[in-house]
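Holo model, flavin-adenine dinucleotide. Inputs:
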Amino acid sequence: MSIDFEIPAEAKAIRERVRQWVHDECVPAEKKLLAGGDYKTILGELRVKARAQGLWCPFIPKEYGGMGLGPLANALVQMELGESYLGALSMNTQGPDDATMLTLLEHGTPHQKEKYLKPLLNGEKRICYSMTEKAAGADATGMQTRAVKDGNENYVLNGEKWFSSAASVADIAVVMAKTDPDAPRHSQYSTFIVELPNPGYRIVRDIETMAVHGPLSSILGGGHSEVEIKDLVVSADDLLGGEGNGFNMGQHRLAYGRLRHGMHNVAMAQRALDMATAHVTKRSTFGQKLSSRQGVQWMLADCASELYMARLMLLHIAYKAERKLDIRQENSIAKVFLAHMVHKVVDTAIQLHGALGYSQDTPLAAWYTHIRSQRLVDGPDEVHRWTVGRNVIKAYERDGTTAAAAGGDLL
Ligand SMILES: Cc1cc2nc3c(=O)[nH]c(=O)nc-3n(C[C@H](O)[C@H](O)[C@H](O)COP(=O)(O)OP(=O)(O)OC[C@H]3O[C@@H](n4cnc5c(N)ncnc54)[C@H](O)[C@@H]3O)c2cc1C
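Output:
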């Protein structure tokens, strides 16, 4: 009996359509943007076309207007979308909106779905997620923002948030705040939906980061905002998922988001390796093509190995997710691996391009500075490795071997 790596024909076909979409539509649209085209017009046109072709919200169920793809087909699609800045945006599956749509879908009341989820699914609005504070990030249970009930109808929130991605372009914010300081640690927080702009949710600034500010970065990403939350009044109707459930909902949201970043990384790394290979096959030094040097071939080989491992990890996780098996250990392993993988491949591509790689004449330099954040966002490396390591010990204590925590169920 053989292990079956055959991808179902339907999933293969959709991946092919999306690959074509990215190459034929998103990459040229990206060039128009870089040439000074209007972002809203270009993205608007792209989205109308994508939706008309049924390329819209890949993992959202069909009854909500999405493609209803399962974990495997979605992973294949996302791996293609990361090749262009406009890939995910064109199909309305960009972060941080996509994971928050899932949260609203799973936990929203009918009123919340109608008022907030519908325009998000239609691509008419954008949403941001405000959990991290200067006071607390990796250990989100240290958040200080308070929500106090004012009668039966409203909550009043006070505190601060920072690194709320896309807040300055968002129409809605999902804000976490402490509702019950006396409850058990993970039940102290609740999640609130806030319509923006709102005088109680003031964007203090978009934080300057190490990421290169290309012509597209602010319009596409919307920056990462520092936010003052002062006497922010939120109707009790806009409490999401019930009091005390904010933390668990946040974790559910991050679990999906972690995978999506990794999937986009595969496409970016693939593009970087293609660019590096194209360059070394053209460029000669000391009388020989760079591609003929064994040292250069080794560099390409290492990148190919990393990409291969990345793809296998994602396919295995998708396989487990399709069968509703527990993916937490693999998710943490892959989250860390994929962030390092893309960094290594892009770094190698820069090296092989020489000064050209360091310049902004190729997208490599911008990618390099953007992807550094991936070792921090959605839980820094050390926290995931902490969890993974604990699971290794637990598996050993339970089974007398660590295999179950190290991909052993592949065997
Ligand atoms: C580009 C970017 C976008 C972001 N977008 C959002 C967003 O949209 N919404 C949002 O709410 N947040 C967002 N964040 C915040 C992000 O989730 C936090 O930065 C992250 O959780 C880490 O928290 P921190 O920065 O406070 O670091 P800290 O919690 O202060 O940790 C600092 C460092 O300490 C180490 N460390 C922490 N705990 C441990 C441990 N137990 N063992 C060993 N080492 C440890 C790690 O190396 C970590 O990097 C974003 C961050 C970035 C950089």
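The pocket of flavin-adenine dinucleotide is lined by residues 96, 129-132, 137-139, 163-165, 224, 373, 376-377, 379-380, 382-383, 386 (CB under 6 Å). The beta strands are 127-130, 146-150, 154-165, 172-178, 189-195, 201-206, 224-235, 239-240, 284-285, 288-289.
Archived with the compound record.
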